[in-house]
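Suppose a colleague, Dr. K., hands you the sequence of a protein chain of 309 amino acids and asks what its three-dimensional shape might be. Before reaching for any lab equipment, you can write down a predicted structure in token form. Begin with the sequence itself:
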Amino acid sequence: MDIAANGLTFRALSRGPAQGRAVLLLHGFPQTSFSWHHQLEALGAAGYRALAFDQRGYSPGARPQAVEDYRIDALVGDVLAVADHLGLDRFDLVGHDWGAMLAWVVAGRHPDRVRTLSAVSVPHPRAFAAALGGAGRDGDDDGDDDGGGDGGGDGGGDGGGDADQRQRSSYIEVFRAQGGVAARALLGQDGSGDGLRAMFDASGLSSDTDEVRQFVATMLEPGALTAALNWYRATEPHAIGDVGPITVPTLYVWSDQDIALGRAAAQATAQWVSGPYRFVVLPGVSHWIPETAPVELNRLLLEHLAAYG
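The predicted structure, expressed as tokens, is then:
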């Protein structure tokens, strides 16, 4: 289906009854709404009206060229405009990777619109900034760490950042660079997307899957990969400074084999949620939680939604 919102047209997938409680799911880089296909089926079967849309840059009808078109205010506006198009005064919000970062911002700025937040992989933006060496605040690890395990890195939240997270995030500057360096590396020498496939393989999601085949096909559409990289170029890592403590009921799911996101910021996220909060660690799972750990994630999402109906 297509959704006309915010002056753009977004491709979308939906499951469940039209009158069901609405759940919006936001994908990350370099994925599409298909990353949520397991969750859409589970939510729809449970009676929810679940919808995931290919976000700005990923939908052919929502692919502006300028870097500034991908600033966080525009991305937040897309989420609210899609909700308005669907007639949703309030909705449950789920996000992974960049979609999770965006979901944190939407929930922080518009708690009147968000019934519950479920963030997958990416921590609260202020916790992430602190781990990179930006503004944050100290605090202890709160919430329910279902996965257990020992902490890692330098501890984060101390003003100096976390060396482990800085190393994990070193790719961001490559993605932010102008001149097509990242695009050439990800598309490969023949432009077929070999670099993207290698990236998925190296980070825990086999390139020999329907998901990766669909993701790569979308990134090979004209202008798509440049647009997806513009999410990085338009947002400074420390720029989302207006997102305070989240007041809506929040589930945060992180996995301890995430190549990009370390434990310090994950644990520090508890400082930035003042409402009901549950923090769950999935041991032995890569960054690609929706695709590789669907049973566990579906259970957690359904529990969270049921607890705050």
